[in-house]
């Protein structure tokens, strides 16, 4: 076992690890907002000093007269180091010079060779060896820099910031949809071409993870906060030319680029939450974050609708300006208040400060060793090849991706369906049409509440009883029931969207969409995470690409589908047959969670990638 280190890390203020505080710290050479390692009063851990390994080896040779493992003791000190031991016991740092002198004295005793000792002075290269003195990690189980040890208030605050970021970006996917007709008229193009602005945005944030924009967050030297802020900055800047462009081609290219730079929140937001929360509390935070991901595109038409309505033929430009304002506000908030959550990055920077403090260039973290062992081929395989391999060769991944892809496509299909129903049939204006999405908002809140109750009274007791060993299929229980809410929504919405039926009825049926979608997302992704713990990045990248592809395609064919299927009537139900078709597809897919719940363990047994059922 690794010996408890002799120092403690002081509790840090909330702003310590934010972007602006890190910048001020760097510019002031550690004088402002100092980390514990940068303070004069900091007591250096003895085992981090240069020469410690060699000196320890020599003292062991003196005591034992035979080679022994370094892990036998990290505190054996000979008579030649009594002074250092006394200093250590008094809480005073041991100087590198004393360690080197003691090491030289031991070498003169002839009990070990210089070659043997020098061979020990090397960086750690085995991530499984917790006993290596030069391996830098948490100071103990209560280290306050560890995000898992943050206070509940801090965790809730940071989760709220991640929700704000996710909402701000994904509001942009649908915020301009109320202006599609205005765009078509202004640029002289068809509505299908004008709809490409929605499609290309979705394609952009589905493609981003496949191009490595989110993989950077796994690099210890980069972390998660910096990619969030940098990509949001470009997202913010790109809104200006998007709102001012004078040609349709430029508008579409810019929409794709904004989607591309908007991919990190949805792709890695869950990882940031996982950095902070234990398994028993993580589902509640993940659920709240999932709500923000749904509310973004759902509330986009509300904001965009009122903006487009009040600015005439140029109204489509004013569907973009609110996005500029919101993303700019969010950017400032994140720079000031969002701390780093990646353990690898926090430890990397701690190790860097310790190397500077001790002049011991052999100090390393596990994250550094992991990256050092990755080859370019492995990175390319993980980023570009394995997501597709897993998506199409693993039945579990394919089933979840198809189901989530369908509901994601329906989410964006609503932006074609709602104008037909609430503007053309019920006579709503653009702003009121956006308010029609309130049914989905209410449904999402109800689904989240039910999900939290299931986690509290079903999942957590089983998790505690089995000491954390819960089969992945447990996550599918809510999805088994929720999957049937999607066909109920589609059949009910399609056949009640009629002028003779009050508009509240189809809105109520639209709530069933969120009641089904929220558990499918939360439970489906949690199930994939538990089934493929060693291939999370590849599985989630494939899922992003899969669902974004379907979500991008359906809006393009949506208007034509509703129009063509409705040619033979009944005229008074303008979206009935289109919703019926989608409802039938969702009815066919509804048994997927049940089938995976029943046969998932057997499928994992056959898989070369999935977790072996015998291990959990």
Automatic annotation (TrEMBL):
Residues 158-602 form the Major facilitator superfamily (MFS) profile domain. Residues 68-81 have a biased composition (Low complexity). Residues 91-110 have a biased composition (Polar residues). InterPro entries: MFS (IPR011701), MFS_dom (IPR020846), MFS_trans_sf (IPR036259). GO terms for cellular component: plasma membrane. The chain crosses the membrane at residues 156-177, 183-205, 225-242, 248-267, 288-308, 320-348, 396-415, 435-455, 475-497, 503-529, 545-563, 575-597. Keywords: Membrane, Transmembrane, Transmembrane helix. The keyword Transmembrane applies. Residues 68-110, 115-134 are annotated as: Disordered. GO terms for biological process: xenobiotic detoxification by transmembrane export across the plasma membrane. Pfam families: MFS_1 (PF07690). It is a multi-pass membrane protein. One of its GO terms (molecular function) is fluconazole transmembrane transporter activity. It comes from the Eukaryota. It is found in: Membrane. This is Major facilitator superfamily (MFS) profile domain-containing protein.
């Amino acid at each position: 076992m690794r010996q408890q280190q002799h120092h403690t890390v002081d509790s840090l203020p909330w702003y310590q690890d934010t972007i602006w505080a890190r910048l001020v710290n760097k510019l002031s050479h550690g004088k402002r907002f100092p980390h514990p390692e940068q303070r004069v009063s900091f007591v250096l851990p003895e085992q981090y000093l240069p020469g410690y390994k060699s000196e320890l080896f020599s003292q062991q040779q003196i005591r034992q007269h035979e080679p022994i493992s370094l892990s036998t003791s990290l505190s054996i000190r000979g008579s030649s180091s009594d002074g250092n031991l006394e200093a250590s016991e008094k809480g005073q740092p041991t100087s590198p010079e004393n360690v080197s002198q003691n090491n030289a004295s031991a070498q003169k005793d002839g009990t070990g060779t210089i070659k043997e000792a020098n061979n020990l002075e090397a960086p750690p290269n085995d991530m499984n060896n917790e006993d290596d003195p030069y391996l830098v990690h948490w100071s103990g189980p209560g280290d306050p820099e560890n995000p898992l040890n943050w206070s509940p208030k801090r965790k809730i605050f940071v989760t709220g910031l991640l929700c704000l970021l996710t909402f701000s970006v994904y509001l942009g996917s649908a915020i301009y949809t109320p202006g599609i007709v205005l765009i078509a008229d202004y640029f002289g193009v068809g509505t299908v071409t004008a709809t490409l602005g929605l499609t290309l945005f979705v394609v952009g944030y589905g493609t981003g993870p496949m191009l490595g924009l989110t993989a950077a967050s796994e690099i210890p030297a980069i972390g998660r906060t910096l990619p969030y802020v940098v990509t949001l900055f470009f997202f913010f800047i790109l809104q200006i030319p998007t709102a001012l462009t004078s040609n349709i081609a430029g508008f579409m290219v810019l929409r794709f680029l904004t989607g591309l730079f908007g991919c990190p929140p949805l792709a890695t937001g869950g990882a940031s939450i996982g950095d902070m929360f234990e398994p028993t509390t993580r589902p509640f935070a993940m659920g709240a974050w999932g709500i923000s991901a749904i509310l973004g595109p759902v509330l986009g038409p509300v904001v965009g609708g009122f903006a487009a309505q009040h600015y005439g033929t140029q109204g489509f430009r004013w569907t973009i300006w609110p996005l500029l304002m919101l993303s700019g506000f969010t950017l400032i908030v994140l720079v000031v208040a969002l701390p780093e959550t990646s353990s690898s990055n926090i430890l990397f920077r701690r190790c860097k400060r310790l190397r500077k403090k001790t002049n011991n260039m052999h100090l390393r973290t596990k994250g550094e060793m992991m990256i050092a062992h990755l080859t370019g081929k492995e990175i390319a395989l993980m980023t570009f090849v394995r997501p597709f391999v897993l998506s199409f060769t693993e039945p579990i991944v394919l089933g979840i991706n198809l189901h989530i892809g369908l509901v994601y496509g329906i989410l964006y299909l609503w932006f074609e369906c709602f104008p037909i129903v609430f503007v053309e049939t019920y006579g709503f204006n653009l702003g009121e049409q956006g308010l029609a999405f309130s049914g989905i908002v209410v449904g999402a809140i109800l689904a989240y509440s039910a999900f939290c109750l299931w986690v509290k009274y079903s999942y957590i007791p089983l998790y505690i009883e089995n000491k954390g060993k819960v089969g992945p299929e447990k996550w599918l229980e809510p999805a088994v029931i929720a999957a049937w809410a999607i066909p109920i929504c589609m059949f009910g919405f399609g056949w009640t969207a009629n002028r003779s039926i009050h508009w509240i009825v189809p809105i109520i049926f639209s709530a069933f969409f969120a009641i089904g979608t929220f558990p499918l997302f939360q439970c489906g992704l949690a199930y994939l995470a538990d089934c493929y713990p060693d291939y999370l990045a590849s599985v989630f990248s494939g899922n992003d690409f899969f669902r974004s592809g379907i979500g991008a395609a359906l809006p393009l064919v949506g208007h034509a589908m509703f129009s063509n299927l409705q040619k033979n009537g009944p005229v008074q139900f303008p979206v009935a047959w289109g919703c019926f078709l989608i409802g039938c597809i969702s009815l066919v897919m509804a048994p997927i969670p049940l089938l995976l719940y029943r046969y998932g363990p057997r499928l994992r047994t056959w898989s070369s990638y999935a977790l072996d059922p015998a291990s959990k």
